[in-house]
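Board notes, transcribed. Complex of a protein with NAP.
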Amino acid sequence: MNVGVLGSGDVGKRLAGGFAARGHDVVVGTRSPGKAELGTWAAGVKGKVRLGSFSDAAKHGELLVLAVHGENALEAIEAAGQDAFSRKVVIDVTNPLTFSNGVVGLFVGTTDSLSERVQKALPTAKVVKAFNTVGSPQMVDPRVPGPSRLELLIAGNDATAKQQVTDVVKSFGWSGTIDVGDLAAARWLEAMVPLWVRVGGTLHTWAHVWAVARE
Ligand SMILES: NC(=O)c1ccc[n+]([C@@H]2O[C@H](COP(=O)([O-])OP(=O)(O)OC[C@H]3O[C@@H](n4cnc5c(N)ncnc54)[C@H](OP(=O)(O)O)[C@@H]3O)[C@@H](O)[C@H]2O)c1
C-alpha cells in the first residue's frame, strides 16, 4: 500500500518506519525535505521511505497519517491541498495541546476536538483518531509489561475506515483496538493527553501508554 505521512517529527518517523518495515511504500511530508538529518534517518530505515513536501505525501498515500503539531494541523492540510485527501482514510495522531505559562492544556473545549476540525476541513476523507494516547516509542512494536491484551483506543465516523486502521494497529504489534465511537469521541481521547503529559512528567518517561485493563 502507498502511505503518506504528514510530519517528520518523532511520531511521523516512528509510524513511517513501521509502515516501511511491513512492506508499504511511504512518503514522509515535511517543510524541510532537504534536511540532512532527515536524509540520514530515511537512509537507515528498513524498507521504502522517501521524503517530500506535505503535498507529495498526501498525493502519494492511499492511506494518510496526520502527525504534525496540533496547532499546525489545519495549516499542514492547507499546504498539502485538500483535494489530495479526497475519500482517503486519514489517521489523525495530533493532539490540540497548549503549554501556556508552562501548564499543559487543550485549545479545544469539551464540545469540540481537533479531529472534528480536521474532518470539517476534509469532508470526504475518513478521519480516524488513533495512536494519540500513547508515547511514540510504543506506537509500533509496543513493549510494555502489563495487560496481556494491549488495545489502542480509536474513534471515527466510518466503520470500514476503523477496520482498516485496526488492521494496521494489529500489524504494528497491538492486540487490537477499542472503538470508542464516532469522531465526537475524539474529544475524550484528546482530553486524556494533558493527563498523559502530567504522568510522564511525574514518572520521567515519554514511553507510557493509556491502556484498558479488563477481564
Ligand atoms: N511524541 C509523542 O509521543 C506523541 C504521542 C501521541 C501523539 N502525539 C502528537 O503527534 C503530533 C506530532 O508530535 P511529535 O512528537 O512528532 O512532534 P515533533 O517531533 O515536535 O514534530 C513536530 C511536527 O510538526 C510539524 N510542524 C511544526 N510546525 C509546523 C508548521 N508551522 N506547519 C506545519 N507543520 C509544522 C513538523 O513539521 P516538519 O516535518 O516540517 O518539521 C513536525 O513534523 C502532535 O500533534 C502530538 O501532540 C505525539
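The pocket of NAP is lined by residues 7-12, 30-32, 67-70, 72, 75-76, 93-95, 97, 131-132, 135-136, 206 (CB under 6 Å). The chain has a mean pLDDT of 97.
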